[in-house]
Write a structure and sequence with these properties.
This protein is mainly alpha-helical. The chain has 18 helices and 6 strands.
Length: 423
Amino acid sequence: MGKLKLFCIVLFLGSVFTIMLIITSWDEPVRATNIYLRTSISSLTSSRLPLEGDPASKQKSEAKNYIGSFLSDIDAFVNRFLEGTHDPTEKVRKETHNQSSEKPEESFVPRPEWKIHLTSIAIEKKQRQDSRKQLIHDLCSSNSSLDFPGKNRTFDDIPNKELDHLIVDDRHGIIYCYVPKVACTNWKRIMIVLSESLLADGVPYQNPLDIPEELVHNSSLHFTFNKFWKHYGKFSHHLMKIKLKKYTKFLFVRDPFVRLISAYRDKFEHENEDFYKKFAVIMLKKYGNYSDPPASVVDAFAAGIRPTFLNFIRYVLDPNTEKEMPFNEHWRQIYRLCHPCQINYDFVGKLETLNEDAEHLLRILRVDNVVEFPPSYPNRTVSSWEQDWFASIPYESRRELYKLYEADFRLFGYSKPEKLLNE
């Protein structure tokens, strides 16, 4: 019995000693773990480096430097993945170690491609942008009398397939919403040059006009928001919002009726096999009294058969058109392509002031020393042609057409074409 008591006492004292040993040893690992969780990966290397007096430090210095560089690269990758690149206009922080407090903690480091300007941007151009953005903001507010489908939805409510016009350039922190028939070919060229997404003989294109037009509209060359889900999965919408907050966002717009004329001229006055089979044949059958139009665009043009502008407008106004498929991007409303009530654009350019706006924008983006906007196309459709083009369109159809595109007219500051709408 005495031996049993002695065994229990020894066991109890041993347990107490073990518990005390665990408690006294626990504090340091836990504290180290907390530090680890609150620091970047690369910062761990400095805490693990041996003291300068340690002989092993001299033998392992090269390896430690390599590991530190490697882990710093991991940090940079994680930051770029979660938040993208920095805004080109942001101050760049220089991280330094063992500096005295007298030295500045940060400095403004211009990128090599930044162009030095001796004069500031004209106040008129700044005011023009302020006015355009304020108009959109006012009309998108709940107090505005303007109403159109999708106005009050949030960015999260936009289906992924409707985000396919937002092109992202992570190298320069830019998001461009392209609108067909609003100089988008040249702006896509600019984005290809900046993102270096297309190479010629292993070298990125530097001159936008050197990029073949048939490649410009190749969707694989442009990283658009609708592709985020494939790359980032459930993180895609979070990443979109981060980039929308950090990046410079821009779009270019145009008088809606003039854009329609331009779309018709481009797609139906020239031999375009794809548009002929997909749209023109329908227009000829339903509105052109052709029960059996030619099978190919070559045969149709040879016979002098093509849809008229009136056929095109009737097709756009027909309520059954969008029941079969959404509007093609060339005549789809701009607000449906670029979502101005859900995305706070930093720059709103107009085709009517293209040269001035392009110069202004490239300067804001700080890429005007890298790329220049190509010269305007001389045969561009202009607003002075509207009266002639709409001569064959009944007044009732004109008013219906304005109602269909009213949101674009008002959001982007285009006057209601009273002369076209009233007899």
